[in-house]
Structure to design on (794 residues):
């Protein structure tokens, strides 16, 4: 049940303060240019499927509203995002510099404002404001955005003494595709294709969040059978990527034999995905009110996969050097994780009890597991536990267990919200429809919330450990930058 | 005869070094269940880069132009002047143990200067790490080689080898084994192998040796790669020879030389297989733990020398 209330711009701080104190999380800030006004929707989420939205309408050519950055760290970053997209001014923002916007964008162009978009780009005129750490012996290591391996682009600037990292600034936003603008005015099926490529490795999580938002907007109720299939595909995606991460973590400490073993397991999971949906990365599997499931795997398959995952994890951790590299490396404390507003397995590895599968249930009930230490080892262990839970749910689904019928309350309001726990964390999509077409589609990936935590966890970590730490977070660059 | 065999040996070590790099990569590939590139792949790559133009940083000095050639020359000289295939018949064609260590560290220093010359963060980072480790590995190398010299009563490598051939009991004595452990630690560290450095990584921030040559391309890179392969081949064969001297030819005949060469190939092959399997089974240790490994090498070498001197 989603509640939407209209709020006066002057009241927004008090409102947000009230929600934050009450245990709500500011999960999204969606801006929209309505031509006659600029609309902002503050989306709050809480356990027991709590969904509240505050709608603010700002008029005039240069809209502005008080900033809520001091109440919510991630809220402050969402505001910077909306500022770069729409030109809304957030008054008294403590860090009013650009987030999404690169120096070579024309100053007066805002991609989500209505009307034609001027796409001339110039040279990067403004240097990026990296924090300079003064002091004797402090030097900087710039890395990227193009790396020695074939990975996504991101620039990291380390301020280092010897090998110890004093400060790291990450400059992302090199892969802006303009997805949100691309979606405006398109059919719901076309936007589904866009949702699958928000982050190519989370095709199910993003397309499902989009479909849930769409079904919420149009009042479609989904059968338990389809919900079961959707949960199965979501958990299959999770287990595939978690196992791949286990291997990748081993590979980043040079234990490439373990990586090869993990990749063999990933390959068999991707072949299973191919059998079930016709696509190794599960694209095209979901549709409005439906989900593909072309192949019924034998019931014995998932317990045997669980056995392989546990023995792989045990085998990796049996290596004393691997344990030495994982343990106490890049600890993200519970307090820091909560302050930054981290999501997904990274948050749970630091002991935060947050999981959209529990807070906004979909399908069969799932356990909520956490770790204590918040180091690379905890993030490894968390992935092992979650992969095993996912395989367990898959085997229950294949055995015929079905969730209760769920769905929207049947009211077609033309606007909807979808929340899904993807393998990186909570994926939230908000959809607004106009005459059967998508007028505003606003997805947000957990990577957006988690990136700042990477820099926090690096305090006192050494430079050669950074790739391992980065892998233990495994955040999306594309999902972060729509 | 001595001159010709020294030259032939240098060339053999250079090409053998390339094949050794390919062989170590092959062991890793097989262990991971891959077919892997052919053993000759490093040779093909050197030839490929030789056909490409060198691109140098505009910040670079004349050092960047000459260092690759100089580095190759240094490693070829070291490879020519150690008794690997045969013990030279007259003095002057075999190096002193101290000279071996000096030539080696000169090469390391030259590579570090070359790395910093391009003026990028990675060259400096790699050079700083490599020299830190070299400063800890060199004592282990010197103590270990010194121990061998003390026992042989001479620092001339030929005499060390001849002495070992005459006293097989010494080769399998505990002190010799302790020295062997120290030398293997040095080999793994100085040639940038696992668990100290991961030659196959793409993660630039973790690199030691690869970071130093990250800015190098074309013919420069061909020369540096060949020089590095020669250094690897040299250190592997030198350590193999002083640890297991059997089969080194003492005469000058063709049969003796062929025998010496074949036994060298087999011996180095066995040592490389052991190192390769060890690499596969190991994970890269934390950079700050490498000094502990090297300290272990120094201790092992010192103990070996101590035991050898006391029990004489």
């Amino acid at each position: 049940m989603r509640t939407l209330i209209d709020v006066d711009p002057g009241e927004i701080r008090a409102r947000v303060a009230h929600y934050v104190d009450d245990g709500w999380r500011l999960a999204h800030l969606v801006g929209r240019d309505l031509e006659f006004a600029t609309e902002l929707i503050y989306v709050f989420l809480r356990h027991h499927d709590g969904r509240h939205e505050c709608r603010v309408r700002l008029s005039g050519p240069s809209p502005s509203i008080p900033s809520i950055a001091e109440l919510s760290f991630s809220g402050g970053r969402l505001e910077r995002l909306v500022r770069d997209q729409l030109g809304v001014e957030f008054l008294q923002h403590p860090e009013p510099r650009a987030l999404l916007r690169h120096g070579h964008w024309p100053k007066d162009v805002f991609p989500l404002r209505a009307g034609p978009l001027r796409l001339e780009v110039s040279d990067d005129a403004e240097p990026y404001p990296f924090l300079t750490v003064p002091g004797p012996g402090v030097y900087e290591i710039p890395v990227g955005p193009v790396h020695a391996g074939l990975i996504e682009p991101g620039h990291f600037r380390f301020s280092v003494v010897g090998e110890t990292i004093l400060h790291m600034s990450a400059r992302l936003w090199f892969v802006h595709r303009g997805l949100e603008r691309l979606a405006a005015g398109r059919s719901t099926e076309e936007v589904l294709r866009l949702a699958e490529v928000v982050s190519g490795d989370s095709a199910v999580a993003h397309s499902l969040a989009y479909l849930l938002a769409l079904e919420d907007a149009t009042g479609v109720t989904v059968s338990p059978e389809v919900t079961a299939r959707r949960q199965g595909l979501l958990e299959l995606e999770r287990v595939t990527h978690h196992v791949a991460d286990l291997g990748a973590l081993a590979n980043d400490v040079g234990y490439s034999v373990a990586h090869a073993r993990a990749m063999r397991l990933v390959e068999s999971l991707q072949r299973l995905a191919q059998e079930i949906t016709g696509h190794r990365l599960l694209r095209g599997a979901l549709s409005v009110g439906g989900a593909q499931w072309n192949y019924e795997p034998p019931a014995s398959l998932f317990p045997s996969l669980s056995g392989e995952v546990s023995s792989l994890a045990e085998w990796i951790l049996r290596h004393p050097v691997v344990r030495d590299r994982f343990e106490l490396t890049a600890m993200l404390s519970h307090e820091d994780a909560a302050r930054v507003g981290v999501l997904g397995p990274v948050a749970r590895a630091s002991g935060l009890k947050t999981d959209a599968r529990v807070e906004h249930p979909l399908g069969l009930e799932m356990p909520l597991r956490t770790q204590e230490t918040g180091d690379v080892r905890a993030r490894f262990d968390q992935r092992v536990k979650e992969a095993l839970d996912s395989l367990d749910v898959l085997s229950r689904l294949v055995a015929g267990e079905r969730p209760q019928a769920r769905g929207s309350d049947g009211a077609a309001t033309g606007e909807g919200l979808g929340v899904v726990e993807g393998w990186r964390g909570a994926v939230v999509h908000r959809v607004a429809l106009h005459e059967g077409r998508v007028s505003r589609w606003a997805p947000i990936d957990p990577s957006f919330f988690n990136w700042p935590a990477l820099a926090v966890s690096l305090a006192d970590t050494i430079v050669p450990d950074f790739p391992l730490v980065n892998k233990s977070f495994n955040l999306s660059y594309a999902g972060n930058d729509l | 005869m001595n001159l010709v065999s020294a030259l032939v040996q240098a060339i053999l070590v250079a090409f053998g070094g390339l094949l050794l790099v390919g062989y170590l990569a092959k062991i890793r590939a097989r262990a991971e269940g891959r077919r892997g590139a052919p053993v000759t792949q490093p040779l093909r790559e050197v030839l490929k880069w030789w056909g490409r133009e060198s691109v140098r940083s505009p910040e670079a000095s004349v050092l960047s132009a000459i260092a690759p050639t100089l580095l190759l020359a240094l490693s070829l000289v070291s490879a020519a002047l150690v008794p690997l295939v045969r013990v030279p018949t007259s003095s002057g064609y075999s190096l002193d143990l101290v000279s071996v260590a000096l030539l080696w560290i000169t090469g390391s220093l030259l590579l570090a200067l070359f790395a910093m010359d391009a003026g990028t963060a990675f060259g400096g980072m790699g050079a700083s790490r490599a020299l830190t480790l070299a400063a800890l590995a060199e004592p282990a190398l010197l103590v270990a080689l010194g121990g061998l010299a003390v026992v042989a009563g001479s620092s001339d490598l030929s005499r060390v080898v001849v002495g070992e051939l005459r006293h097989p009991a010494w080769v399998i004595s505990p002190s010799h084994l302790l020295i062997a452990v120290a030398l293997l630690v040095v080999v793994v560290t100085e040639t940038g192998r696992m668990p100290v450095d991961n030659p196959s990584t793409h993660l630039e921030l973790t690199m030691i040796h690869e970071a130093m040559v990250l800015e190098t391309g074309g013919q420069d890179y061909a020369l540096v790669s060949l020089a590095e392969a020669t250094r690897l081949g040299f250190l592997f064969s030198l350590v193999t020879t002083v640890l297991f001297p059997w089969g080194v030819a003492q005469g000058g005949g063709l049969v003796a030389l062929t025998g010496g060469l074949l036994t060298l190939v087999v011996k180095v092959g066995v040592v490389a297989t052991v190192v390769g399997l060890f690499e596969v089974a190991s994970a890269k240790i934390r950079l700050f733990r490498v000094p502990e490994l090297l300290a272990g090498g120094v201790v092992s070498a010192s103990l070996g020398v101590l035991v050898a001197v006391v029990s004489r």
Q: What stands out?
A: The CA atoms of residues 299 and 331 of chain A lie 39 Å apart.
